[in-house]
Amino acid sequence: MAEALRRVCGVEVGEEQAAEIVRRFREGRGAPARRSPPGGEGGSGRAVERSGPFDELRAPSAGEVDGIVGSSAAIREMLRRLERIARADATVLILGENGTGKELAARAVHRRSRRAGGAFISQNCSAMPETLLDSTLFGHVRGAFTGAVTDRMGLFEAASGGTLFLDEVGEMSASLQAKLLRVLEEGQLAPVGAVEPRRVDVRVVAATNRDLEEMARGRAFREDLLHRLSVLVLRVPPLRERREDIPLLVEHFRSRLVEREGRERGFTRECMERLGEYGWPGNVRELRHEVERLWVFSGEELEIGPEHLSPEIARAAQPKQAGKAGLHANVEALERRQIEDALRRTKGNRTHAATLLGVSRRNLIRKIAKMGLGGR
After folding, report:
1. Contact call for residues 319 and 268 (beta carbons, < 8 A)
2. Which among 169, 226, 258, 352 has most CB atoms closer than 10 A?
3. How many domains, in total, are found in the chain?
4. What's this model's pTM, rounded to 2 decimal places?
């Protein structure tokens, strides 16, 4: 039953929690719904994304912990901090760029917590309009608005006893921020159209790739909510800070493709070198997509070479040629370090970085793309 709910509803539950959700559904009290198509009552981006080719439960790869692959110092430190955070029951804020694996980290926190037997439900806060997100998170009562023909349980209630993961929490409107703050402070909520509040027992894990402190200073995000969310903070490092994990990640994705398609294939040494040299602004997600792309476009080749790399990666990740560094290569290396330093000092803001470097923003963007660097 628990496995069926995971696949159909996108929720990770124990058997007892699964039985409770089914009981509530039969009583007409609602349950986590499947993602509805765009324009339907559920809207788009509903709850958890459907499983992709690498998301099914399988035996872990080498260097894999709860789906998080890597053995670098940065990942080991993150996992040590994650372990301590999981033992507590306070709210967690996960910080990291797009594609770094913030939801994987949230799932790992849940699985290692005392709430592991309860539901894990995920919702992207930028995936639907404010009114629909309000109903999705907090539920609604019959007649609350046009089309509300029955009472509907929100995700906070569905996740009661477990964990609710709120991705892109920085995209929440001011009114929804206020309602979220009430849940965190008082442990109760009011569904849309309801008069009496309802109590919930849920651990909130939120994530963002935005600077919430800067948003709070600009009054785009509530400072009191920021304090409530950031009781425990976990930073997921970008891939460029843990390049030594790239071979492990490539092998992880390769082995899943081999298992899925039933044929053994690999990558040439030169291809692996190119992958290791690229900056990966899209982080692990971009690497995963590139591995699958290489797999498809290399046809039946048993050894996949660099000639199949995406054009932007092929341009940016040039092979190292011993003894041919020369003046041009040294100048490029110096330019790269200066751009990386400017992006780091301006927290990835390209406009400010261009001003710091004394170049046009357009020229800087061109160089960033050429070098495969991150930023925004």
Report:
1. no
2. 169
3. 3
4. 0.70
